[in-house]
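Worked Example 4.2. Consider the chain below.
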Amino acid sequence: MGEPTVRKRQLGGELRRLREAAGLKLSDVADRIGLPASKVNRVELARLGIKPDDLDALLDLYNVGDGAKRDVLHAIARHGSVRGWWQTYRDIISPAYADLISLEADAKSMRSYQTSLVPGLLQTAAYARATIDALSMTSTPAEVNALTQVRMARQSVLSRPEPLELWAVIHEAALRPRVKSDPKMMKEQLQKLLDHAVLPHVSIQVLPLDAPPHAGMLGSFAVIGFPETADLDVAYLETLTSALYIEDPAEVSRYGSAFERLRASALPFDESADLIERLKDTT
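Applying the procedure from the previous section yields the following structure tokens:
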């Protein structure tokens, strides 16, 4: 499994924007610093990585003097050389899922809106196994167990020294018990939400069933934020068979605005916790 494609696209897109802002064509780059135009083009198209010296040569040519920005781009370029724990599961997780795990590992924050499921970073193992089994449909029991292990391992981003800042808005429908044959599973899941809601880096709100029309009616999404710059934030949408990453800054900003509206429409933290407690007690 190579470098996560989302980060590679981010680097390539930024280098292309810098080149165009400098008024240079690919042939100009080749003439001035000797990097073949075809190689620069493949980097910009996210088909090829780039060595540190070559990256510095491009940034010098594009007059990028901002040390922080240069550090960010170098960090992204190095990303592919780091072997993540998830690569152990490369036979059962898709490249798009590997991208998500990699992005979570690098991210500073995640703003998640869920319509029908508890966010993966807040799921119990039993809940995760049940939902993975239902949604994967064709996976074997061994594969379901392995995917459950992956989901549980992802949650380490919430307990690392500098934990991911997670803000989750969950529709009330996702929290109402629907597995009548296993009420214990849902009770434990709701308790896990309550346990995490008291952590300083985790914020949980519930969007009530009687909420007025809102920005999340078209489905779940997440906005993954990075410490470098908002221009590198990513919006993530998941479907039954694939995942979609939104990387254009203007579009990502719209998802961020949608989340802010959902946050404003959701119950305050204390009321959200009270509702989760009541649902747990009646499960």
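The CA atoms of residues 140 and 172 lie 31 Å apart. The mean pLDDT is 89. Compare this with Example 4.1 before moving on.
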